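Aim 2 progress update. The chain analyzed this quarter is reproduced below.
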Amino acid sequence: MKLSLGPLLYYWSREDTLAFYEAAASWPVDIVYLGETVCSRRHLLRLQDYLDLADQLAAAGKEIVLCSQTLIESESDLKALRKVIGDGRFKVEANEWGAVRLLAEKGLPFVAGPTLNAYNPDTLSLLAELGATRWVPPVEMPREMLAAMPIPAGMETELFVHGRLPLAFSARCFTARHYNLQKDDCQFRCLEYPDGLVLATREGESFLCLNGIQTQSARVMSLAHRVDELRTAGVSVARLSPQSQHMEHVVRTWRAVLDGSLPPQNAPARLERLLPGAPCDGYWLGEAGMAWKPESVAPASLPAL
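Predicted structure tokens:
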């Protein structure tokens, strides 16, 4: 099973973003996704910056995938999408159907992102016909549904296995609304929340996480202890979503599990101390997404990080 580093979902400073990917060049990941998928106002890195990063990471042996934005709301967004697709050197992840159409028209292979909402075999077959060579199921798809899905020949399955779950997108910016600001005058408040702005219930329980126009889970999907189930369901790529702290340790823990040097049942004890929030695995089990039910196996002694 390959490891991928998913697109950065948060808005970090230019310096922090460049430093993150410079470090990632030495991490044991096979695939790196680059590009802004959430908000077109996040402009500290331009397309050329991502292309420069792509060249550097490709030189380090990584497969590079450029990502399209999830919501195309203006002509400038469409222009930016055409530029991403027009580069032609790297595969593109299509995160909305307009990107699928443009990629298909050019006959380019692509990755079908999770926000295309491919829930059934007909949709997946259509994506394969249009040029998809890898697909990412919706984050709430349970293991039974994934295992029963007929996969077109030659198509890889990549699963979101680590990170706060992207649940919804909106034309409204909820981070700006939190500060009583208009979306077009948001003052880029997302920069203050490198892992999103967590909301709590009246009882004080973390519930959701605001990330601009994206609503995420407050809990962090963590499936390293279920690697055998992932393999049984046909997952060939495990996607790790970037977080602001301890990402290298997260990557190396996953690599140790995949390589067999760390027993899967020991992964939760190591990962929980590295996460920005409490873990969850409910969607994978077909239950409430925020549920956390790690396998009840007595852990062996943990090797040092």
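The radius of gyration is 19 Å. The longest strand covers residues 156-169. These observations will guide the mutagenesis experiments scheduled for the next reporting period.
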